[in-house]
Design a protein that fits this description.
Number of strands: 0
Order of helices and strands: HHHH
Distance between the termini: 26 Å
Strand content: under 5%
Shape: globular
Number of helices: 4
Structural class: mainly alpha
């Protein structure tokens, strides 16, 4: 899967916390930490806009799968967002 590259600036304290997550083995790289954080942010923003059609836990699981497999750019986020509307 081809991914876009983004450049971000973070405070030394945030970088230290990211490195701690990598050093303890929770994540394998800084990129993995940041990707997971972005996925969680996107999912959090989607909570409340999902229609309550039954098993919301299962709906969230499906969206999480789509995010982890299909997200390659912000345009993909828009496409995924349309799936729940």
């Amino acid at each position: 899967m081809v991914m876009d590259t983004l450049q971000i600036r973070l405070t030394p304290e945030v970088v230290k916390r990211i490195d701690n997550l990598v050093d303890t083995g929770i994540y394998s790289s800084r990129s993995d930490v940041i990707r997971d954080a972005v996925r969680n942010l996107v999912l959090d923003k989607m909570i409340g806009i999902l229609p309550n059609t039954g098993d919301s836990v299962e709906e969230i699981r499906e969206i999480r799968k789509k995010l982890s497999k299909e997200i390659k750019s912000f345009k993909d986020l828009e496409k995924i967002n349309k799936l729940v509307h």
